[in-house]
Design a protein that fits this description.
Layout (H helix, E strand, L loop, with lengths): L1 E4 L4 E4 L15 E2 L4 E7 L2 E6 L4 E6 L5 E3 L4 E5 L1
Length: 77
Amino acid sequence: MSNIQSPLPGTFYHKPSPEDPPFKAPGDKVAVGDQIGLVEVMKTFIAVNSEVEGTFKAYVAEDASPVTAGAILAELE
């Protein structure tokens, strides 16, 4: 199992906008470079991309929750 960590502190989002579905759902294939979320810092949104491939298991961090650098955001199988 692999974990995707936050590259920086901020607010983590599962979706590109409130009306859209999450970037990934359990069972989705994840390739290196796939976007799994966003971290917002001072009104700037930074893409969180996977550095490993696998199958998406779940988000660990809640949607729209504060995270620290290195916090686990999601798990891959």
